[in-house]
Amino acid sequence: MFFGDEHLGKAVAMLRECADLNQKQLAHEIGVEPNTMNQYESGRRGMSEEVIARIARVLQRDPVEIWDMSYSIFRFNHFRERAEIEGMAVEDLIARADTRPSIGTILELRDSLEERQRQLFETVLKFLDPLVRAGLGGLGLAKIIVRAHPRKGAKTRRAVRFSRKQRPRPPEPP
After folding, report:
1. Cys-Cys with 132: which of 46, 52, 89, 170 at CB 3.0–4.6 Å?
2. pTM over 0.90, yes/no
3. Domains detected in the chain
4. What are the phi and psi torsion angles at 113 (to 5°)?
5. What one-character DSSP code corresponds to residue 7?
């Protein structure tokens, strides 16, 4: 199977249906005979760049959208044929071949990272709390305080060291 006119025609047909137009209406709008439009959509006749541009204009789409959709149709058909040969589900074959993570996966990982960071901060605060109350200053761990927000114009967050004079005093025990 090669990428070609049949995939481009199917993409045009799908986009035409989404725009609530029939073949005759689209043919009239782009200035071709209905039979020619039928040949375009069935893949029996190729479309020039000019024809694709006219179709895109009528469907209020970018020509690249038509090309992208036709490639997606080609890709799915390719995987469908391979899945039949290998005796497996199309979805499983696509998942195996698609190495890009999904948006959902990325969002799950981000949420997981934020939760782990929150747990880390809570744990560090629990560790430091009794030491600060005892006046030990966290045994040197509390010497470095990371600013929550970078300074205006700064590109990265930075750690700030306080000298003994500047170091914040621990709160008085109740």
Report:
1. 170
2. no
3. 5-97 (1.10.260.40), 106-161 (no CATH)
4. -65, -45
5. H
